[in-house]
Design brief:
375 residues; 0% strand; globular
């Protein structure tokens, strides 16, 4: 029954994303870059709460279950509850039972939505505003998906977790409405891909150490997280100084990626879990529908021929990146997505340079500039 409900939810979410979400356009009331209206600020707050809760969970397990998390871990898949050794701190901290599973149930939705909105903010005001306009639908579909996963992993904590998740699904969109978009347009696909990839590494680190209660893995994540943080800081510094307008094919790619972010938001979670719960074929069809719709809305229709070559190169790069990446499925998807965007952007840039008129000896455009590949 769970798989059937997930399939229905995915189909309904894709239909809503394609048919209804593009019509939404919320007015942006807060355009200035106040720190308190930045999704990155609140994402940092949520991550801090996540990690603080992990410390309290370790203290509770030590004091109540004598350091053995089996009373809860036996209800969950393998790979959970590699708790950190807090030493004397484990007995000095309070032992609060609600830190086990319940806090995560409340924080998981804002964590996911804030990370997604941060990427959308980098993609420009239009993308950010459309996602913000769809926040109630996005929250509803994401909450329903999380609740399905809760029921699939049913345990004594599940009834309260379901209530907490529904409450989070109501409160989170109310708070998201106060966020501001920042810049007015995308700062380019290379900086976007590298920024999103670096953020994705940080999100995976939090996913492993906090949402799976593996705070004992934190030391192993430090080098990768530090490198990702450096890349993120560097790419955002570069993005803040970019002002050149993109060439035609690159502009088409930017618009298409922006539309994909808008369309993918609502069905993203059911699509991801459909792969895990035996609905891979449906997930592939849903993904194809979203990609094709994004291209129809964002790509310059005069350059469809160029798209064939660009898409082929990008797909090969994505497949290679995914196959060479181990670990969580999310890690393979992240590497594949970054490789797809970088390879496609590189080819767009090459083709754009080929179609740029080259000056003749007298400084006027030469005949070599007359041809427009893919037009």
């Amino acid at each position: 029954m769970g798989e059937l409900v997930l399939a229905v939810l995915l189909v309904a979410a894709v239909i809503a994303a394609v048919a209804w979400v593009p019509r939404l356009r919320a007015p942006v009331r807060h355009r200035t870059g106040s720190v308190l209206r930045h999704p990155g600020t609140w994402l940092g707050v949520v991550v801090a709460l996540f990690l603080a809760n992990q410390v309290l969970v370790a203290a509770f397990v030590e004091q109540t279950w004598h350091g053995d998390p089996d009373p809860v871990a036996r209800y969950l898949p393998s790979g959970w509850f590699a708790l950190a050794d807090l030493g004397p701190l484990a007995t000095a901290l309070p032992a609060w039972p609600w830190t086990v599973l319940h806090v995560q149930a409340g924080l998981e939705l804002p964590f996911v939505l804030l990370a997604y909105l941060l990427v959308c903010r980098w993609s420009g005001e239009e993308v950010f505003a459309r996602i913000l306009a769809a926040r109630w639908l996005l929250s509803g579909v994401s909450t329903a998906t999380f609740c399905l996963i809760e029921l699939d992993l049913a345990n004594p904590w599940t009834p309260v977790d379901l209530v907490v998740r529904v409450a989070s699904g109501i409160v989170t969109p109310l708070l998201l409405a106060q966020l501001a978009p920042g810049g007015t347009r995308s700062t380019g696909l290379v900086t976007l891909a590298l920024s999103a990839g670096a953020l994705g590494v940080l999100v995976l680190a939090v996913y492993d150490t906090a949402t799976l209660y593996n705070l004992g893995h934190l030391a192993g994540w430090v080098p990768g997280a530090a490198a990702a943080g450096a890349v993120l800081a560097a790419t955002r510094w570069v993005a803040a100084r970019r002002s050149r307008d993109p060439a035609p094919l690159t502009a088409s790619a930017i618009r298409s990626i922006g539309w994909f972010l808008v369309l993918f938001a609502v069905p993203s979670l059911p699509l991801r879990y459909a792969v895990t719960f035996g609905l891979r074929s449906l997930a592939l069809v849903a993904g194809a529908v979203l990609v094709l719709t994004a291209l129809r809305r964002g790509w310059d229709h005069r350059r469809w021929r160029a798209l064939v070559g660009i898409a082929t190169v990008a797909l090969v790069a994505a497949a290679a990146g995914s196959l060479l990446t181990g670990g969580y499925p999310e890690a393979r998807l992240l590497v594949g997505a970054v490789a797809f965007v970088l390879a496609g952007t590189a080819l767009c840039s090459i083709l754009d340079r080929r179609r740029t008129p080259r000056p003749g000896r007298d400084g006027t455009p030469g005949r070599d500039g007359a041809r427009e590949p893919g037009s």
